[in-house]
Structure formats: C-alpha cells, structure tokens
Amino acid sequence: MTWLITGGAGYIGAHVVRSMTEAGEQAVVYDDLSTGIAARVPEGVPLVEGSTLDRAALDRAIAEHGVTGVVHLAAKKQVGESVEQPLRYYHENMEGLRTLLEAVVEGGVGSFVFSSSAAVYGMPDVDLVTEDTPCAPMNPYGETKLAGEWLVRAVGHTHGLATASLRYFNVAGAAAPELADTGVFNIVPMVFERLTAGEPPRIFGDDYATPDGTCVRDYIHVSDLADAHVVAARKLAQSPGKDLTLNIGRGEGVSVREMIDLINEITGYGIAPQVDPRRPGDPARVVAAADRISAELGWKARHDVRDMVTSAWAGWVRLHPEAARS
Ligand SMILES: NC(=O)c1ccc[n+]([C@@H]2O[C@H](COP(=O)([O-])OP(=O)(O)OC[C@H]3O[C@@H](n4cnc5c(N)ncnc54)[C@H](O)[C@@H]3O)[C@@H](O)[C@H]2O)c1
C-alpha cells in the first residue's frame, strides 16, 4: 500500500506520517503548506505541494506515486474563524474533500480515512458520547466535518471505497519536540502562553454542572491518535467496502481546572487561574465512549494527560527557550 497523507505537514498529519512509516507503510505527503511546515516531513517521504482543491495536481500525485489509500487530514480547523468565514470553510473543507474524492474514485484508490472531530456532536447532554449520540454541530467547522462524513460514506457505498471517519476528541502532546503544535488554539498551548507571559490562565465559567464547576473534556495524546490511523488504515485495506465511524478519545474526563493545575505543576509556574464568564457554545462535558474503536480495531490509548502536557511543554520550550524554568 502507498498512502497519500493530505495535511501531512501539519501537527497531527506529521504524527500520522511518522506512525505509518514506523509501521512499515509507504507514505506520500500532499499539503499546500498553508499552516503546515515542510520540515516536519521526514527524509525519504515525498512531499507534494498542492491544494486539495486542485484536481489535476491530485490526479498526478495519485498516478505518479501509485497511491492505493488516502488519509485525509488537510482542512481549516479554527472554530471561531469558521463562524467569521463560513464560505471559506465550506470551500476548503467540503469542496476540497469533494475534489479529492473525485480524484480518489477516478484513480482507483481503495481506502479512505477521514479526519473528523468531536465538534460534530455539538452540546451532547450525555455522560459518555457514543458514535450513535445525535450529531448537532454548533459552528461551520463542525458542520463541514459532519457533512464531510456523509459525503465520504455515500461515495464509499456507491464506489466501493472502504472508509473510516475518525472523530478526534481534544488532541494534545507531541511525539518529539519538533513535531509539537505551533498554533495556540487549544487549552494546553493557551495556558502555556498565559503562564509564560506571567499572566493567570483563564477559566471560562466555573458554574457548570460538573464536579469542580469547570468544563470537562477528553484529551488524547497525538501519538495515540496517530497510531489509531495506522490500525484504521490497515483494517480498511483488508476489508473492501468497510464503513467505520469511530470516536478517538480515552473515555476519561479532565476538567479545565485539573488541566491548569497539572500544567502549573509540570511547567513550574504555579500561577493561580482567573475565572471569567462562560463563553457561548461551550458544552459542560464532552467525553468519548471509546469502546467501539477498541472492539473494531483493538486500539486503546496508552498515554495519559501528564504525558501530553510534558511532551507539549518540551515542544513549547524548544520554540520559546526563555520560557523554561530551571
Ligand atoms: N487539532 C485538533 O485538536 C483537532 C481535533 C479534531 C479534528 N482535527 C482535524 O485534524 C486535521 C489536522 O489538524 P491539525 O491540528 O494537524 O491542523 P494543522 O493546521 O496543523 O494541519 C492541517 C494541514 O493541512 C494543510 N492544508 C490545509 N488546507 C489544505 C488544502 N486545502 N489543501 C492541502 N493542504 C491543506 C495545512 O497546510 C496543514 O499542514 C484537520 O482536519 C482538523 O480539522 C484536529
């Protein structure tokens, strides 16, 4: 098998490339480098610079590299930006996916793994979110992921493509400091940014119906997430016509306050958080039921939240050496 990894120069994509190649799979990265970094692509893995909106470039990449499977991570992913620029998000994420799927069908590719998100669930009112929990995304980003899943499944059924939509919960950590997330859109880097500026980390609302009043989320180490792609990809390669939708989480809730306490401990900063008003659209609790992926693929997360924060901090200090506390 040769796997085309779209978005393979991105934070998660680079980890997927690493896991796939370490597992002995052939990988080719396809990325427009809009948020990706070419240096994240390991030596020996070809990097094709192109957009998922460019059908001719996709056709060429699939033919020239003999691509037999695709892992599609390339997308725009900022929720707030998607509210401000819905047309751009639908264009990049939906039209990009549609164009890619056309090239996949024409090119005779047999397997397709799609990066989806827990954002498809919106504000679920359940203790553990199963894949059958009704989906009700709250923003254009989440909508493009849900509609993307529908398109992937429909094309799979009609054209005999084995497909998997992987719904990532809150991704954190790094397999190596140079692969760390360079964006500041998730809680871990946001807290790092505040602490290293000497400011208190922010908690948005501490009056939720949760044990300590702050929002509860399910965090997953990016290395575990990447390994889940390897097992999903291999399963599809052996199971023509397969159609999977799977949560990727740990099934364990961690509150915002617990996360900030842990980050304060690991970084050595120890700055007490400040409590600000709730943000609109933040659900109280979103924690995955992780049984289906374990039953279908035998996959289970291995890293805990401490590993995530420690490895993310090593990546942060690499970019901001002045942040380190000796
Ligand atoms: N980071 C998270 O917590 C999270 C959670 C759920 C789902 N996801 C999904 O995982 C995927 C990867 O996210 P990430 O965190 O690595 O983000 P990222 O921005 O680091 O990676 C996205 C990559 O895709 C490339 N790209 C974007 N648009 C493209 C296009 N039209 N054509 C070709 N390449 C394009 C970028 O250059 C970048 O390398 C996305 O689909 C995202 O929606 C991420």
Automatic annotation (TrEMBL):
Domain of life according to the entry: Bacteria
InterPro entries: Epimerase_deHydtase, NAD(P)-bd_dom_sf, UDP_G4E
Pathway given in the UniProt record: Carbohydrate metabolism; galactose metabolism
Alphabetically ordered keywords of this record: Carbohydrate metabolism, Isomerase, NAD
Catalytic reaction list: UDP-alpha-D-glucose = UDP-alpha-D-galactose
Cofactors named for this entry: NAD(+)
Span of domain NAD-dependent epimerase/dehydratase: 3-249
A GO MF term: UDP-glucose 4-epimerase activity
SUPFAM superfamilies linked to this entry: NAD(P)-binding Rossmann-fold domains
EC number(s) stated in the UniProt entry for this protein: 5.1.3.2
Family: Belongs to the NAD(P)-dependent epimerase/dehydratase family.
NCBIfam families in alphabetical order: galE
Listed name of the protein: UDP-glucose 4-epimerase
